Amino acid sequence: MKFRKMRCFVNEIVAFLAKSPADGEWCGWEISRINGSGNNILYRATGHGCDWAVKFTIRDERRRAWREFQALTVLQEAGLSIAPKPILLDESRCAQPVVVQSWLEGEVTAVPPQTDSEWHLLLDHYAVLATVSPQTTSVTMLEAGINFNGIKHGLQHIYAHLQMLPESHQPTILCQLIPAVEKMASTIEQEVEPVLGLCRVDGNTLNFVRRADQWLSVDWENCGWGDPAFEIVDLMCHPAYLDVPWPRWEWVMWQYAAKVGDETAVIRIQNTYPVLLVWWIIRLARFLYEVPRGKDERLVQRPDNWQDDIEQKMERYVERVTAVLSHLPGSFKTI
C-alpha cells in the first residue's frame, strides 16, 4: 500500500475511534475492542487491506505512546521481527495520545511457560532484545520505566517511592526489609557495571504472542535503556510468575546468561531480585493509599475486588522477600 493512502486510512480510523469508541463496522472497517490494561484503550481495526492495533494511552509524564512508537521503530530499524511494526504516533490531536501498529496473530495466554522449550522461546526473545543498544540505533529513547543497574540504584528507587507514601500508610514490615537490603548493599564493594540494552519492561504473560517457532511481544509503553539482565528480575517479580518454583528461576538465570554470553548477568539478577520485591511492596501500598483518593488515574475502571487483590499480593511479596533475604549471602537454592 502506498504511504499516502495508508496515512489517509490511519488518520481516518484514529479520528473515528477518538470520537466513537465502540465495536462494530464503519466505512469498511471491522472494529473490535480488546480488553486488558487499565492504562490504555485498545482496538483491533481491520479493513482496506490493513490489520492494525489502535492504542489510546493515558496522558502522563511517562509518554507511553511515544515510548512504544520509539521502541517499535528501534526494533524495525534493527531488522528484528519480534514486535509489531510502527504505523502512527499522535500525541496532540486526540484527548489521549495514540499509537497505531500492525496487529500480531498468535496465541496469548495468562499461563507462564510450562516446558523447557517454551522457556527457551521466551528467553530467546529477551536475548535478541539485549543486542539492541544506544550505539546500534539513531532513534531517541529514554531510560526504561523500571530498571535497576544494581542494588544501590534500586535503593534510590525505593527511597523515591517511599517519599510518595505518608509514613502512617507505610507497611511496618518495611522497617525490617529496607535495612536488610541496605546491609546487603554495604557488603558489595563494587557492583558489575551492565552494558545498556533495550528493555521492554513489564513481563506480563499477556504481552507475549506465542508462535510455534518464535515468541513476539506487544505493549512497549514502558520501554527504554537499562540493564537487560534486569528483565529477568522483572519476570521473577511479576505477579503473573509468582507461582513459578525457585529451581526453574535458577535454570532461567543461567540459560539467559548463556544466551547473551554474560555470566555476570546471574550475579546482577540475584543482587537486584530482593530489591525489586521490596519495591513491589511499596508500589502496592501506594495503590492502596492513592486509589481511594483519586491519585492513580486509569482509562478503565478497576474491578470491585481490586483492594482485596492488592492486599493478597502484598502478603505474597512479603513472604517471598523475607524468604529471599533470610538466605543471603550465598545461593537461593533452598527457597
- Can you name the CATH architecture of the largest domain? Alpha-Beta Complex
The N- and C-terminal alpha carbons lie at a distance of 55 Å
CATH superfamily of the largest domain: Aminoglycoside phosphotransferase (APH), C-terminal lobe
Helix-and-strand structural type: alpha+beta
- Strand percentage, roughly? 5-15%
For the residues shown, what is the average pLDDT?
93
**How many independent structural domains?**
2
Spans of 5+ residues with little confidence (pLDDT < 50)?
329-335
| Sheet with the most strands: spatial strand order | 1-2-3-4-6-5
CATH fold assignment of the largest domain: Aminoglycoside 3'-phosphotransferase, Chain: A, domain 2
User: What proportion of the residues is helical, as a percent range?
Assistant: 40-55%
Overall outline:
globular
What profile does the largest beta sheet have? 6 strands, antiparallel
Gyration radius, to the nearest Å?
A: 21 Å
Number of contiguous helices:
9
- The first-level CATH class of the largest domain is given as Alpha Beta
H/E order of the elements? HEEEEHEEHHHEEEEHHHH
Tell how many strands the DSSP assignment holds: 10
